[in-house]
């Protein structure tokens, strides 16, 4: 069953001080079935992140449709959805993870994950239990649970970032360059996390520069230059 479908997608950006309009992306078409992982590849500036941010509605596209099979609303065009619907989907159905960890200062890892659970209306006791479970699941060292993440390594921050998204059990998780600037060992940890999420039934869409990282991980790959699918097993 088609879970996410992009049809004739296009996005322009207005550069006010130059009095110019730049066509960032145009005529993008692809789909993802439930439980699949699609990787989006292409050079810097090709519009990969623009697509993910438009699915999450950080950006509002200019052309096309983004059709999402919502559990609450049925099939919804994310370009036309009301703000209250987008807020609901971000809270309960769609997660977004980037390479950056932007969190409230003086908040521990445990508190951050607990807050993600509390936002969904769960009781504090349940939030505590689920936070401990997901932090263990994503192999964040227990001694870091009550530590401020500003002191963490890149790999530890990324695992916390994914844990905060995963604890909500999103039906769709968007990954925007989550392995950028990580060392090889940290990338392996991230790969394990993604494999666990996929095994639990999450549908994923990800942007990566590291083609080797994607080998054997994605079900399908969309090439921004060719504007079509490429062989998911033929990266190296």
From TrEMBL:
Residues 4-236 form the ABC transporter domain. SMART domains: AAA. It is found in: Cell membrane. One of its GO terms (molecular function) is alpha-D-ribose 1-methylphosphonate 5-triphosphate synthase activity. Its main location: membrane. The keyword Nucleus does not apply. Its EC number is 2.7.8.37. It is a peripheral membrane protein. It holds the Pfam family ABC_tran. Keywords: ATP-binding, Cell membrane, Membrane, Nucleotide-binding, Transferase, Transport. The keyword Glycosyltransferase does not apply. It comes from the Bacteria. InterPro entries: AAA+_ATPase, ABC_transporter-like_ATP-bd, MetN_ABC_transporter-like, P-loop_NTPase. Belongs to the ABC transporter superfamily. This is Alpha-D-ribose 1-methylphosphonate 5-triphosphate synthase subunit PhnL.
């Amino acid at each position: 069953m088609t879970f996410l479908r992009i049809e004739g997608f296009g996005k322009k950006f207005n550069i006010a001080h130059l009095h110019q309009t730049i066509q960032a992306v145009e005529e993008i078409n692809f789909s993802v079935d439930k439980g699949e992982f699609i990787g989006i590849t292409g050079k810097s500036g090709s519009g990969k992140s623009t697509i993910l941010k438009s699915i999450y509605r950080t950006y509002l596209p200019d052309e096309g449709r983004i059709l999402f099979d919502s559990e609450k609303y049925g099939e919804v065009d994310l370009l036309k959805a009301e703000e209250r619907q987008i807020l609901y989907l971000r809270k309960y159905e769609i997660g977004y993870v980037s390479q950056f960890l932007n969190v409230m200062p003086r908040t521990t890892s445990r508190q951050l994950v607990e807050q993600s659970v509390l936002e969904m209306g769960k009781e504090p006791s349940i939030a505590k239990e689920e936070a401990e479970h997901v932090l263990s699941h994503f192999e964040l060292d227990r001694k870091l649970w009550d530590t401020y993440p500003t002191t963490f390594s890149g790999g530890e921050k990324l695992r916390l970032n994914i844990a905060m998204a995963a604890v909500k059990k999103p039906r769709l998780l968007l990954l925007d360059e989550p392995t950028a600037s990580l060392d090889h060992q940290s990338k392996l940890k991230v790969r394990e996390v993604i494999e666990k999420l996929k095994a639990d039934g999450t549908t994923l869409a990800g942007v990566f520069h590291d083609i080797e990282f994607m080998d054997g991980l994605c079900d399908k790959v969309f090439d921004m230059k060719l504007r079509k699918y490429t062989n998911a097993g033929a990266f190296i």
